[in-house]
């Protein structure tokens, strides 16, 4: 943190993550040395915001015939930015227009299984996974191509 002059009575913490609980302490320093930290402040939760971090490592997993299994690394709680966090799984057969989107409402989910009897084995799909919470929709992961199960 920045050094604050001894005659200041307050300071502003910036670039904090939304919807995270913080405690603050003050430590005084002079020519003689550094004192003990103050007692922690009361816990303060920052305001909610639209999430900014998409899930990482979107990939395909093995599944049963006529299934497309989409997996990702869940977004950690500190980057969910608010209540009602979940995922938007978007997919389409490679080379087509228009995304199918499915909502996954569990914040700790790490996969989605799409079943369709009309999908031939090893059909390539373009896939991306986005995030949302009560404040709105956040970004999607980069598009990856995965194949339906054999």
Automatic annotation (TrEMBL):
Keywords linked to the UniProt accession: Cell adhesion, Cell membrane, Disulfide bond, Glycoprotein, GPI-anchor, Lipoprotein, Membrane, Signal
Ranges of residues in domain Fibronectin type-III: 1-49, 54-150
Gene Ontology BP terms: axon guidance; brain development
UniProt-recorded Gene Ontology molecular function terms: cell-cell adhesion mediator activity
Compartment list: Cell membrane
Signal peptide limits: none
An annotated GO cellular component: plasma membrane
Annotated transmembrane regions: none
Membrane topology label: Lipid-anchor; GPI-anchor
CDD domains reported in the protein's UniProt record: FN3 (cd00063)
Top-level division of the source organism's lineage: Eukaryota
Keyword Disulfide bond appears in the UniProt entry: yes
Residue ranges, annotated region (Disordered): 38-63
Principal location class: membrane
InterPro entries linked to this entry: FN3_dom, FN3_sf, Ig-like_fold
PANTHER family: CONTACTIN-5, PROTEIN SIDEKICK
Protein family: Belongs to the immunoglobulin superfamily. Contactin family.
Name under which the protein is recorded: CNTN5 protein
Native source organism of the sequence: Tricholaema leucomelas
